Amino acid sequence: MCVRIVLAFVILTTVYDWYFPTIAVVFLAILNDGCMISISRDKVEPSANPNKWHSKSIFLCSLLYGTYLGVSTIVLYAIAAETTFFQDTFGLATLTPNEMTGLIYVHLSVGGLATIFITRSYSFSFLDRPGFLVICSFVGAQIVASVLGAYGLGNYHNFAGAGWGYVLVGWVWSIIWYIPMDLLKVAAYKIKDSYVWKHFVFHHKDYGV
User: Fold this and answer.
1) What InterPro entries does the entry give (predicted)?
2) Is the separation of the CB atoms in 61 and 3 below 8 Å?
3) The total number of structural domains that make up the chain
4) Cystine design at 137: which of 19, 35, 45, 98 (Cβ 3.0–4.6 Å)?
5) pLDDT digits (tens, 9 = 90+) for 40-63
6) Residue 209: what pLDDT?
7) With contact defined as beta carbons under 8 Å apart, do 172 and 111 qualify?
8) How far apart are CA 110 and CA 158, in angstroms?
């Protein structure tokens, strides 16, 4: 999430001169980070092999996912701010810079937290059902995020709502980018487990995922 936010907002600020309100980042952190606590009660299968932290692998995968999600945010903003695609295709209103916060907030919340379902499993995420508490936490957090995205905070600190039409856009956009990310995860793990990766990149024996 940190890589994605830093990459996306650096580009959006420097290239498009658009600023994401600090108060929105606070809400994002409270809801999503609070939801991530539920992972401790997730339904998982224990590894058959001894495990240890692979910091380099974790860092590279985080960089990969963060860059991918950051690009998705930048592309969404560019389409919404620089084109009339959503207006011409779906009949939605043109967003002001403050209302754009609602759209980007929903996308950041849904797309960012959905990463839990990808990273928690070694294979495709739809093959490994998460625990009930994780699902409930995700749904609860995204209901609140959707309401915030639709209505904002009454333009408080430039956080205005984008309306329910754009909330749906944020959800659909996140789902569209979720599917290739799942494939990207599986491919990354295949590369990580390859002979070349283990013996020539990190020069260590792998004792688990």
Assistant:
1) ATPase_P-typ_TM_dom_sf (IPR023298)
2) no
3) 1
4) 35
5) 777 777 667 776 666 777 788 888
6) 44
7) no
8) 21
Amino acid at the residue 45: E
Residue 44 lies in a domain: no
Question: Which CATH number goes with the domain that contains 124?
Answer: 1.20.1110.10
- Predicted pLDDT of residue 164: 96
Identify the three-state secondary structure at position 73.
helix
The tokens of 160 are what?
């205005």
Q: How many residues does the chain have?
A: 209
**Please, how many CA atoms are within 13 Å of residue 38, restricted to the half-sphere of its CB?**
20
Q: Is residue 93 part of a domain?
A: yes
Residue 195 Cα distances to 48, 51, 53, 187, 191, angstroms? 20, 18, 19, 14, 8
User: What's the domain range around 151?
Assistant: 1-39+55-192
Neighbouring CB atoms inside 10 A of 16's CB total 15
Give every CB contact of residue 142 below 8 A, 6+ residues apart in sequence.
Answer: 109, 110, 113
Residue 209 lies in a domain: no
pLDDT tens-digit profile of 91-102? Answer: 999 999 999 999
d(CA 24, CA 85): 26
- Mean pLDDT confidence for 74-92: 95
> What value does the mean pLDDT take over residues 131-142?
88
Task: Give a yes or no: residue 202 inside a domain.
Answer: no
Task: Judge contact between 20 and 6, C-beta under 8 A.
Answer: no
Cβ proximity of 189 and 122 under 8 Å: yes
Band (129; pLDDT cuts 50, 70, 90): confident
